[in-house]
């Protein structure tokens, strides 16, 4: 896959992901850290979120972060229902 088209596509994807990571760090990381800390104060932790939240590498990592936050919120909802 060393065609000029493939290399150009890879370069565009890398630029897109660089911008996506920059936006995540500037716009979302502070909120994610705050939510993560609030969950931790309630005894809810997620090793995958801990591993990824500061430096997601790609779309899959970002999707995993969102999924883990949703799972943590769901566990809090379940706890509230049983209390």
Q: How much strand?
A: under 5%
Largest sheet: none
Rg of Cα set: 17 Å
| Helix and strand element order | HHH
End-to-end distance: 56 Å
Percent of residues in helices comes to over 70%
Q: What would the average pLDDT be, to the nearest integer? A: 94
Number of strands: 0
Overall 3D form: elongated
Number of domains: 1
What can you tell me about this protein's structure?
By secondary structure, the protein is mainly alpha-helical. The protein has one domain. Helices cover 82% and strands 0% of the residues. The longest helix is centred in the first third of the chain and has 38 residues. The N and C termini lie far apart (56 Å). The relative contact order is 0.10.
What's this, in brief?
With 83 residues, this protein is mainly alpha-helical.
Question: What would the keywords be for this entry?
Answer:
single chain, 0% strand, mainly alpha, 83 residues
List the helices and strands and how they pair.
Blueprint lengths: L3 H38 L5 H6 L6 H24 L1
